[in-house]
Write a structure and sequence with these properties.
There is one protein chain. The chain is of the alpha/beta class. A six-stranded mixed β-sheet has the order 1-3-4-5-2-6. Helix 2 runs antiparallel to helix 3 and helix 12 packs parallel to helix 14. The radius of gyration is 22 Å and the shape is globular.
């Protein structure tokens, strides 16, 4: 019966011109065949889907095509984009890079993995300070895998009415089955805070219990990603529901130098010491470094400066540090 429904869904999505749903259902058929032990057929189906996506990308490159958006009530729960980011765009620790490469590799060989009764990693929890690359990671995974990125809108998900949030959460998880993509829960602690906190109320416990149940039961081929700056307040039961835990940290001097050099070396003087600049920027996040570099570039464009000096960069970094300290005092 499952395969019959999938065939109907394939025809329906084709008639409606919904390519994303068509690809998603085709991947479900491939996974079904893999579970039956038809590994070669499953791999062939996945290859055909990848080729179709690549061909679609080429044919639409010079033509604006409306992005398929969540419809109905889902439009208030999910915002969609199609990132083109790649892992090479990020500056990360060796350990994090290897973890992400492994996730991408397992997703690309999902049919083969499933055919042996195993599951590729797809439920990920990202923890670390703000500005360290958690949101960018969701974009990179979507870009590497050619999938849409669905960002879960907490303002639409969380309501004051009893039982309504859980019902909306169910719609999101239903969507993971219907449309394969990367589903990103930012500020995940809003859903997953500990059930024993002193300011806890019954509805918070119900939301968390619903999420725990739904993520455990989820058998889709979508990636589900939660990101938080406050792992200490997450309920312990959550950690067991995720396939992988990725830790993000503030960049060290070597990574700081790499970020600054990659963004500014084209317009900077050859005498610029990236190592010296990095020593002055310890404590800033990747996002803050990027903003500081962009400020230098904008100033150079406005003032018609041909070459950026080390002093220009150091000034922008110091300004960003002062802003960061003010924000920290206010929070």
């Amino acid at each position: 019966m499952a395969i019959a429904n999938q065939l109907k869904a394939l025809l329906q999505s084709h008639l409606e011109g919904d390519d994303n749903r068509f690809y998603s259902v085709a991947m479900q058929v491939a996974a079904h065949e893999a579970k039956l032990g038809h590994g070669k057929l499953a791999e062939e189906l996945r290859t055909l889907v990848d080729q179709a996506k690549a061909q679609r990308s080429v044919t639409t490159e010079s033509k604006a095509v409306p992005i398929s958006k969540p419809r109905g009530e889902l439009a208030n729960l999910l915002s969609v984009s199609y990132p083109k980011s790649r892992l090479s765009d990020m500056v990360l620790s060796i350990e994090l890079t290897q973890q992400l490469e492994r996730i991408v590799c397992e997703q690309r060989h999902a049919a083969e993995i499933l055919s042996h009764g195993l599951s590729p990693r797809r439920k990920l929890l990202l923890v670390g300070p703000p500005g360290t690359g958690k949101t960018m990671t969701a974009s990179v995974l979507a870009g590497e895998l050619g999938l849409p990125l669905f960002q879960v809108r907490l303002d639409g998900l969380l309501t004051k009415f009893m039982g309504e949030t859980a019902a909306k959460l169910r719609q999101v998880f239903d969507s993971t089955q219907q449309t394969r993509g990367v589903y990103f829960f930012d500020e995940f602690d809003a859903i997953g805070s500990q059930r024993g906190l002193t300011n806890d109320v019954g509805e918070v416990r119900r939301i968390l219990n619903s999420f725990l149940q739904m993520i455990e039961q989820d058998k889709s081929h979508s990636l589900i990603i939660g990101a938080t700056n406050h792992p200490d307040i997450l309920d312990n039961a959550l950690f067991r529901r995720f396939d992988d835990l990725l830790h993000y940290e503030l960049p060290d001097e070597a990574h700081i130098a790499s970020v600054l050099k990659s963004r500014l070396s084209g317009m900077s003087l050859k005498s610029t010491s990236w190592k010296r600049l990095a020593s002055k920027a310890v404590g800033l996040s990747y996002a803050e470094l990027t903003r500081a570099a962009d400020e230098v570039l904008k100033t150079a464009l406005i003032e018609r400066i041909q070459k950026i000096t080390e002093k220009n960069i150091a000034y922008a970094l110091e300004e960003r540090r002062k802003l960061s300290e003010r924000f920290n005092k206010m929070s």
